[in-house]
Here is the input.
Amino acid sequence: MKENIEILTKKFGRNREALIPILQAIVEKNSYLSEEAMNEVAKQLDISAAQVYGTASFYSFLDTVPRGKNIIRVCKSIIAEMKGKKEIIKTLENVLKIKVGETTPDNMFTLLETNDIGWSDQEPSMLINDQPYTNLTSEKVIRIINEYRK
Amino acid sequence: MSSQNLKKTDMIFGLCHTTDVEHLLPGGVCKTNEEKFVVLEEVIKKDPQDIIDDIIESGLKGRGGAGFPTGLKWKFASLSPEKEKYVICNADEGEPGTFKDRDILLKVPAKVFAGMTMCGYCINAKKGYLYLRGEYKFMLPELRKVLDSFHEVIKKIGYDFHIDILLGSGAYVCGEETALMESMEGHRGEARNKPPYPTVEGFRNKPTVINNVETFVNVTMIQKFGVAEFKKLGTQDSRGSKVFSVSGDTPKPGVYELELGMKLSDFVDEYGDGDTKAVQVGGASGFCVPRKKFNETIIGFEGIPTGGSMMLFNSSRSMYNVLTNYLEFFAEESCGQCTPCRVGCQQLIRGIRAVKCGQKSPDYLDALLKLTASMKLTAKCGLGQSVANSFSSIVSNFTEEMIY
Here is the structure.
């Protein structure tokens, strides 16, 4: 962990402005921020661990609890609701055999809901990691999940 | 039914439907229609004061929703003797039902970068930042590519300005300009007290101009076509065109560029499904307009201003569900630093549920309306202040749906 974060502080620097880019890079690699990672970042940036946790916990994409390798975020805006978001959640829960908020036992997927992701013209929509998927149907969702399982 | 009165324009996306930046080079042409697009090189030969005067004269107001006159903002920042200044493009488009900046950044990012550079030239800043919402991270590789060639162009023109892209991490409130700067500085996205305004003390406490993505494109197009052409569009109070995000119960959801100052009834004629009961203008933080007021409602700064979100609801929709969805959104996205917003959002949800299930009498809605009025007065930033907009417009226009 120490070495990994040293690489990041070399890249982004050690001042406060580097904090969020560093946390983003850790999440990109490990899906979430472990206590160990946050403590190490605090040490290397010479700020308190509370500062690191306080900042991370503010942002919904900087998870501080364990997440699966692929994080699914289904849009829950009113437009998504109107266009069939419930059906999409039901399909995902069936396919992954988990509920919203949970992670599959093989650690492959975490299923979450999120606020408007900027695709109201093509709802229902979801993000898997950074990739948006739009105009979703149950069939399409199953196909997409199967692709990630390969 | 297509409305004859609705004026479609093509200023934002027109001219260059390309991410190429070569057309910004001296003598460069846009590949799609062979038209010259050398505006950036011409602009940096002008007197900065003349450019600012142009933008003031054009009447351009900020396209993020708040509508502050762009030229004045630039003027304030330009007047500061500070050596270190910044330009920020706010691409943290988080308002529910908004997605126009997504299309602008996907289709014409060079126009955004050009507008930022012009701003840098006017206020004497050497550094610009594009703060992109985390949800749009998928755009990053393409944007970086365009930005690289853009930097080459600037270098060839012999000008010194550099733009960096920073990513958000899923916090709506960071669209508020001072919360965004807190986030850029590595902190929780909690809004600052204003004044001082960003043009005096912004990013790193230095004078900063922060504008919406679309505003920067407008600046580029004003420089390209001239103030007179821009002023031909819109009305006296609302100059120019606006990019709208149309969603909900409509046969043609999407991004449309329309002249400001239109009647909502004309908009509904064009985009409605024939059974439109209400339009939410400006997203969750905007206003809900019921059918009976379509005819008297103007979309623009003289009527209802909007960042562009237009959500249509037909008569099959429950406005109670719409309102609770908005309130849950606000409660979740409230940063929690000021009491009116943190507690107010929670109480509004509880209150409206209590009325719906009969635990509280319908009169209780009046108490809730008073609470939103207090929030408008006392919340620290635009998030808490604007909860009253959707709450009062939905509750007062659809009172029966809130009770039964």
Observations:
- The helical segments of chain A are 2-12, 19-30, 35-45, 49-56, 78-82, 85-96, 138-149.
- The longest strand of chain A covers residues 70-75.
